[in-house]
Amino acid sequence: MRKIEAKIVADSVNPQGNRITTFLLTFPRFILSELNTHRVFSKNSASSRAIPFEKMVKMVEDDPFIPIAWQSKHSGMQGNEYLDGESEQKLLVNKWLEARDLAVQQSKLLNNSNVTKQLCNRLLEPFMWHTVLLTATEFDNFFKLRCPSYDGFSKNGEKVSFRSKKDVRKHFEELKLDTDLVDNQFFKSWQSINTSQAEIHMQALAEAMWDAMNESTPKELKEGEWHIPFGDKIQNRDIMQHVKGSFNSRTEVEEAIQKFKIKIAVARCARLSYMTFDGKVDYEKDLKLHDSLLKSGHMSPFEHCARAMTNLEYYSSIKGKVPTQRDEYGILNYEYYPYSDGVTNRDGVFWVGFNEANPNNGDRFGWCNNFKGFIQYRYLIENKS
Prior knowledge:
Largest sheet: 5 strands, mixed
Number of strands: 16
Distance between the termini: 49 Å
Strand content: 15-25%
CATH class of the largest domain: Alpha Beta
CATH architecture of the largest domain: 2-Layer Sandwich
Helix content: 25-40%
Low-confidence stretches: 274-278, 327-360
Structural class: alpha+beta
Shape: globular
Number of helices: 14
Radius of gyration: 25 Å
């Protein structure tokens, strides 16, 4: 049985301390629109338009999404009372599955009437699990808005709230309390102490992502090195046959191999998996898919691979500023940007200054599209001179 899940497929940090993380997410299809409101995320998503109708029906019949809890009727966006009686919950699950059966029945009737799968599959979406590949450098606002908020705890005499059940468990362990107390009391009453206003399934997804990031150690990249989702699954020896041409050094060979790794990763991001559809690794198909995506202008899969900025790139990439020209050092100048508040050259030396009146202005540096500290493969392609 599938469940709400977040797996990290690549996790990196640049020399400036910015972290980029790529997730493979599983969640109910009906919260996709909520995830899509977070525009700092680069995403590729499984398409219910593309999945064959018979396969979609089987997925919904064999492993449908069923709500993780049943809230009572309420006003506003979010309630805090639940229908939690054992017999009551069984009845509600049965009613949900009856609705699933009716949706399957009607979609089959449409399919038998020669209606496109793009419409037949839509009737099944409330009962579908969904898969998304997501890459970003900025998660703070997402976690603030979407994670649970488990309240009613204290630490060092101050009230604290936690975004994860695992964090609550750690808190109990730090206090040397019996973990049975956590399991028997907290995990059975998490709804009553959760004050988050996010939809509960979105909370579960955000909580899974929060835990995954806390449990992952990002790979340290040097400037110019690449964050490549599924890159650890791509073996150099297996792609050497695709590396053609003459090279003057080992460095040139490694650069050529890296280019192929990036292309293969793009194809796998488009497929939402590091395996081809027939279950076999086929680099030739991956390379052809990369070229086909590029030719047709399907550019979203090109956003997940990203290069760590150099120090020069980092401090000349400023959020909300339009560059005017480059000076003799290749640094972007801003005619209204004084030295005390940004980037300049002085006596032939690269200087970076910060305005003491605005100590947070350092957050403006390092931005390229929706990533901070990293340049997307897509950006490099679209801005190639």
